[in-house]
Amino acid sequence: MCGIAGFLHARVDENAGRILVRMADALAHRGPDGRGFFLHDASARELSRYPGDGVWGGEGVRTSAWVAPPLRSGLQVGLASRRLAIVDRLGGDQPLFNKQRDVVVVFNGEIYNYRDLRAELLRRGYPLRTQTDTEVIAHLYDDRGLEGMLDVLEGMFAFALWDERRGSLYLVRDRVGEKPLYVVQGWWGMAFASELRGLLRHPRVERRIDLEALGQYLLAEGVPSPKSIYEGMIKVCPGTWMEFRGGEVREQRYWKPPGGDGERGGSYYGRNDERALVEGVELTIEKAVEGCLIGEVPLGVLLSGGLDSGLVAALASKRVSNLHTFSMGFDEPSFDESAGARAVAAHLGTSHHAFRLRRHEIVSLFDRAMEAMDEPLADASFLPTLALARKVREYGFSVVLTGDGGDEVFGGYPTYRLQRLGAFLERCPPLLSALARRLGEYLPSSYNDISLDFALRRIMAGLSRPSDEMHALWMSGLLPSDLDAVVTPAYRSRILAGVLDPVHVLRPFMRGMDRLSSARLQDLMRYLPDCVLVKMDRATMVSSLEARAPLLNHHVVELGFSLPNRWIASPRQTKILLRKIAGTYLPPAIVRLPKKGFGMPTAQWLRGLPSELVLGWLTPAHDQPRFFRLDVLEQWLAEHNAGRRDHRKRLWPIMVFERWRKGRFGPAGGLSSESES
First vs last Cα of the chain: how many Å apart? Predict the structure, then answer.
């Protein structure tokens, strides 16, 4: 696991070495064990003191650098890596090369089948000098080409590959977007980095908030790909590669989620052979878990107390003796799943470590979260995930397995039960919809995890919309009507202009799908990579902890999306097939539990904080434009504190954005200075 960064300059910059070092060191948390550089510029002052194939020791960090002669084309290529050493800890320093040293790779992630690929390359005569997956990529590119290589890679990854023969820089992101990769382009060339903070260290980068991206963030609670919160800085989309060659750019999707008719499903293991189907899915998941156990460092499992992480822990415990599991609990009963996590751990016989997040810790934890967040993310579970990751790292663990992906792949969200009522929803009389909407206004407010009044209001908001927009609104933060009320008139048209564009872009992928299948696909392509996986990657990597999600192995994903809907969800139950498999491994009470999610008692905690503090978080700095009406925010906060309404989904995204905007990654944060650590 690493952080990567680099650039392709249109002309030689004499400060290139200094720029490359600063971009890499902005990602030091992702790779505290080593740093490596490749630069086509023999005069680079920052790298000239590093011997060509040697190791430089500074502040306990291994540093290696390769300086190549300048390119005759006038271009300037720089690649950098910050390394968290997990595989071949002593010999795997990056960048790594092919035999001719005209293909250079910096890599972030894990290739779970790299040992098999490495053995094949050795049989074919390729000279591999390390035991790493990064070097496999360099030689595999020679052997199969880019597309052929991507067909056989299994894992989570984002990497940059410089092909000197072709004069091309390739940026590649894994199929579902577990690992991040940002890009910025300008007249001067382009730059890339694992996180936005790495790009912000390049002196040519300017910080201008993208108002369309802001609107999409407020609706979706994360900035949907390919946008970022800043104009001109984009994300490489999941399952996509980009090629930069001279002044030309090509983009190609190399993987897309399977489609089809969810009522009939695919042909895996036979549609009508129930036993073969269950055994086949179980074997595929077990192989995925086994693949995630590679490495030379201690490994644990994050237990939420639910089905997905419990099944992952059960399968891991078959191969790992004395498996360690970790969980985070709360004092608020409707959010606390720590009892379930303890029950799973006791059933499996793991060494379990349970922690509890107290209400009085919220202010300091929120401040710490904002320091870790270089782009706004309104998933409140970022806070407990951040706290849990730090605890896990303190126990000496560098790798954890998670249950991420189970909800999208096997149908875990409560909204999927409603999607199975699709025909009824389409025929729902307008009068009944209006009555239910009015009832939602008069129901007493509750701050429980998913309360009746909150659920009913959210459902009614989507009923008059097309099915894809309906699902997006059910999963949203602020609704379009909320934005219309709270955004100041000067910015309303620009912020609201494209709030549902990320949903509309997915329509070609959903063509011919039923309601449930299209909702799952929307979550897999939008909610998962832009919210769930962002949360897990940033919260863990800020503590130099690698998180692996076996249920997002692409074989598992493709298999899950081939299943008939009857094995996914019904109006009464979710994860039908996965529960059947988990029944072999987990306590019956856990198997029967409804979906809760690793949430945070945001509503209660907001109510318990001083109003002046929350209003301060909701208010921009004096030198920043005012995007939101203070009178509306004050009204929402007053209603929330009085218990008349639950406004957590309205207040939290704005609060996170405004607090981020005042921080070091915001428009006035000054990250292009030497002060960033």
Answer: 20
